[in-house]
Amino acid sequence: MTLNIRRRMPPFWFPAADRWARRRPLLQQLLAAEQPTVLALQEVMPGPSRQIRDMLGAAYASVGTGRSAGGRGERCELHYDRRRLHLLDSRFWWLSEHPERPGSRSFGNPLPRFVVQGHFSDRGTGARFHVLVTHLDPFSAPSRRASAQLLHRVVADLPDPVILLGDFNAGTGSPAHRHLVDGRVLADALEVSTRQVGADCSTFTRYGSPTSTGPRLDWILVSPGLQVESAGVNALRLGGAAVSDHEPVHAVLNLGPKHSAHPEGGPSWKR
User: For residue 265, what pLDDT is reported?
Assistant: First the structure.
């Protein structure tokens, strides 16, 4: 599952629907219901990060960092069910001409943009795969294009299957989407899924009612060899309220011929 949880903002600037104190219990209900095997989050600040770890409980571990040098600032995080997955390795790198330099910027984005990458093995099957989460720049189309090109080059060189999740701040007809979704290195899970579930709607609804007229900014992209059993946008409303200004996106993946990502009797969603 991928979700931009919307960073906490000053309450006097934004409507009541945006307030973290109101949305936090909704997020807790969502996570308790879904229990994703892998959860990719964007716009996480240190306080909410600690609260989310508490929501998920001791069965989960996480890897993440902030966008600025020293790990400060807005974070991307990968949370994973360690009963199911073993973290082999992780790294953080920046979407710039100097990816290994924390906080670096090169492509015209006013703030650093980066990637949290984890290499996992499935404890039951031994299947290995990479998971990457990112949050592309909302202001600069050239930055999004250059970032997508860099992501494509990195993913193409990885030896195991890849799952790339995040808020790309671009629609599915955008240059960023076209650079990444080429059918050889990555495919869009919603476009190749055997079964589409959930709402046919934008992922950026700004706390409003689900609508099909807005952009799908949040994607799950996968190596073409991975079978996507189902995928969809979960436009959940709890008591009429939304968890975030973005909608969660889910996918059920089959990592190989000996692996069933959706065991009989299991939960309706299993990432």
Answer: 33
User: Per-residue b/e over 54-66, b at no fewer than 16 CB within 10 Å?
Assistant: ebbeeebebbbbb
- If DSSP codes are grouped into helix, strand and coil, which group holds residue 73? coil
pLDDT digits (tens, 9 = 90+) for 146-169: 999 999 999 999 999 999 999 999
Residue 30 has pLDDT above 60, yes or no: yes
What is the CA angle 174-179-184, rounded to 5?
Answer: 130
DSSP character for 241?
B
**Least confident stretch, 18-27, 89-98, 152-161:** 18-27
The pTM for the full model equals 0.92
Q: How far is CA 193 from the centre of its chain?
A: 17
- Measured CA to CA, the distance from residue 65 to residue 194 in angstroms comes to 34
Interval 27-53 mean pLDDT: 96
User: Backbone phi, then psi, for 202, in 5-degree steps?
Assistant: -60, 155
User: From residue 104, how far is each of 91, 101, 221 by CA, in Å?
Assistant: 15, 6, 25
Task: Please state, in angstroms and rounded to a whole number, the distance separating the CA atoms of residues 203 and 14.
Answer: 20
**Residue 16 DSSP class:** G
